[in-house]
Amino acid sequence: MTSSLEKFDVIILGSGLAGSILATILAKQGLRILSIDKSSHSRFAIGEAMTPDTDLIMSILSYKFSIPEFGI
């Protein structure tokens, strides 16, 4: 039986808002990412963890890392 091991540059524990943002930024920089979460889906509904401060931070990250999907 042949086994191939995947190699990753970064392993992120948790795929919530912060983990997902970090994974996206690092992947856009060309790193191979593995994201692991104990649940099969996020704990929050989409947008539930977003606040006006988070909107500002997402806009800054969108600009700084050239990720238009983060732009609000």
Can you give the helix content as a percent range? 25-40%
Distance between the termini: 49 Å
Radius of gyration: 14 Å
Shape by Cα distribution: flat
Which regions have little confidence, pLDDT < 50, spanning 5+ residues? none
Number of separate strands: 2
**Pattern of helices and strands:** EHEH
Query: How much β-strand is present in the residues?
Result: 5-15%
- Strand line-up in the sheet with most strands: 1-2
Number of domains: 1
Structural class: alpha+beta
Number of helices: 2
Main sheet characteristics: 2 strands, parallel
Report the average pLDDT across residues. 83
Molecular structure report:
By secondary structure, the chain is an alpha+beta fold. It has one domain (10-70). The chain has 2 helices and 2 strands, in the order E-H-E-H. The protein has helices spanning 17-28, 52-64, and strands at residues 10-13, 33-36. It has a two-stranded parallel sheet. Strand 1, helix 1 and strand 2 (33-36) form a beta-alpha-beta unit. The protein is flat and about 45 Å long. The model has no long low-confidence stretch (mean pLDDT 83).
